[in-house]
Amino acid sequence: MNKILIIEDEKELRAELSILLANAGYAPVAVTDFTDVASQMREAEADLVLMDINLPNANGEALLQEYRKVSEAPVIMLTSRTTELDELISMSYGADDYITKPYNPTILLLRISAVLKRTRKTGQERLYRDVHVSSLKGTLSRNGSEQMLTKNEMLIFQFLLDHPGEIVSRDDLMTALWDSNEFINDNALSVNISRLRNKLQDLGLPDAIETRKKQGYILK
Amino acid sequence: MKLTDHLKDKIYLFIIEAVALTVAVIFLAAFKVRWEVFTALAVVFLLACVTAELYDLSRKKKFYDFLYNALDGLDKKYLLTEMLPEADFLEGELLKDVLLSCSKSMAENVAFYRIRNKEFREYIEMWVHEAKLPVATLELICRNNPDIKDRISGQLKKLDEYIENVLYYARSENADKDYIIKETPLNRAFANAAVKNREALLANGAELETQGLDITVLTDGKWLEFIFGQLISNSLKYKAEDRPLKISVTAEPHEDSVVLLFKDNGSGIPAEDLPYVFEKSFTGANGHRHPGSTGMGLYIVKSLCNRLGHSLTVRSEQGAFTEFIFTFSKNNHLKMS
Fold first, then answer.
1. Strand stretches in B240-281, DSSP E
2. What is the reported pTM?
3. Nearest to A13 among B140, B207, B213 (CB)
């Protein structure tokens, strides 16, 4: 389980962020004492850091610079400052992503998993049960047989694969697709999922995606 | 300065001179002075008067003509005090003094309001950042409590949009450079804006079609995202009643520019309103039919484009479509990172 360090001084926001991350299968740890954030960051050994730029007694950008001297762990800056300049500064100090408040929670989770994937340098070739998933070629292969997936089907499958054993709502799938410039509607999503199911069936996995009424889908 | 105006202005002097001359002539006649003498005296007197007048006229004409020419040539008339000519007569000096004092006082007054304006804008920026925190928290609460999400998230999106509007209005009115122009992927900015409006778009059965957005343009990404958001929200507001909304966004690279077309199949803009849609507070016929039209959205969009140096025009046919045409120039001197 990936440990995520939350550095956010707004108490309510921090609490909700922790719930969100815990629900998404991460292990959130929050900084609550802002007197010496730098040392807490060093000692946390987090897999990823979510950090607000405006903090009491400290500036997120300066903390980020300090942190970069001792750790390579990915850092995502969360901020309500919405200028390109703020973003450029954060990125040049070594942030891996920069998200402005109020953020769409699904997008936030997408970015977290993207950053984690990128730093692990996986993502090109993954495994689902005994199926080889190649996002580069857009194929699923199992026991010598191969299925080509369209871009949309691959996005859906990868999103499900990122959340194994969890219910993924249609809303989340839709957000993920739109975020990748695929502006599909409800019907198209259903069509894409049923095509994906058919392809998995052809690979001998008829029950891979299970529908939960009014909730979403689970990749089993 | 016209000669006749000057003479009219001096008429009192001529009357006094004429009366004085007449009285002098009567005196001289009473003392039985020979007529040759007083003719000579009258001629000398008249010559002196005319000479004095001509001299006075020439120096004033030089000064005032210069002043008026300068005034005509100036785009910003208040800069006149920066180019006042030498005045070698008292009235000219007095006028210069008065103008300089007025201008100094006005400059102080303008500076006062400029500072006030800047402080106000900084406060707005700060306020917006503060206001976004509870919105962010509420978004997360919605997400963590799916049972209340449907009722609240739509309102929350609206609230966020209004807050953004204030921020970008303040930015569009501001003269400081608070943007960064760099290579920005069009599809990223558009997807961000589309995701924000996804629920509303889907609820209206809207179809989005993009073409050629996988290129970069020189712009400020945050501003462009806001601009897309405004246009999407307008398309939603003014969609045609009899058909589902369709928005198509197309980018065409050219030799020295990228042209972006944002087109919807909505109710369109009446031809007589079209020239005014970018004007502040203009609502037009469409605005009258829709509550919540402030006439600010397109004005802000246009101001932001002006500040970023993008040209923006609009085409429309009532009942058929509205199309916004952006031109992003490819200027290599501006290239960064």
1. 246-253, 257-264
2. 0.80
3. B140
